[in-house]
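cron nightly-structures :: item 1 of 1
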Amino acid sequence: MPTTAKNFIKRILQHLAARYGRHTRSTHEPELLILMYHRILPGDDPRALSEEPGMIVSPDTLRMHLTTLKQYINFIHLSDWLARKNSGAELPKRACAITFDDGWADNYDFAFPILRELDVPATIFLVADMINTNKQFWPERLAKLMSNIALHHPNQWSLSELDWLKTPTTRYQFTTIPPTQEELSEIIANAKILPDQEIHARIDEIELALQLPAKNSAPSLLSWQQLSEMTSTGLINAGSHTCSHIRLNSSNSSTSLEYEIISSKQKIEKQTGLAVTTFCYPNGDYSAEAQSLVQKNYEGAVSTQSGWNSTKSDSYLLHRIGIHEDIAKDKIAFLARISGWL
């Protein structure tokens, strides 16, 4: 089928989903929609150029999402919904909880003013050991490294330290042109077969082989002061996203899991003076042991599984619908995305 015809059919389906989706239906049982955002950046922001497309929503698009939702649904703090559910208190028939993963500085720069303007509560899931530092997530480090090599050291693509990035399915040609956002997403996805600690170590090896000077770039993530300003309004809650953002799978020791899950809660509570009752699994990964620790220390947790939630949903594997610019940049596409249909 030609691309034009496919796009036409897709648009018709989006219109139907936007008009008749789950967000429009009357319900006798309480339902919770949780939206998952990451970065809020204008399209011309330099930080957006080296980020995966699935991580970004523009400020204007976020404002459109929130004003659109106000026509259909009541906003609520995730922690409040869980507290009501766990205590047997009355829940709104249709509620929406906004969440942001990772604790990016742009959440303060661009999302917070909009949330405050529209009086919308949200939860930011923080990586405790990275807040108030210049540390970077490995996908961010890898993206900047790939761009640096292409623009300044293209003759170094033959380094053996880079061989692990050149998988049979990699479309990027390792040239003088940095990878596109789509090519970068593919490279990052391929790298995820390795443990997080090993990926960081391999990036360290590449930087050492290239003799790249250490750079004190502007912090990518929030400071505790910025977080304090946001939480003082009552609109922003802090949740835990571990201490170091490692995937909580069976490769982690019990000691490591306890540190990531329990210590992160303790550190955030100490810094903010506020209770941390919600948790977010990095990359959506969890082992049985990890889930058990989360159940013992939090009131609930969110996953990356897509869908809506009810009172019968597992409080420690709550579904969310991921939102990014490419799939929700206009009202119809956004409503179709949250409809529960597409």
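cron nightly-structures :: done
The mean pLDDT is 94.
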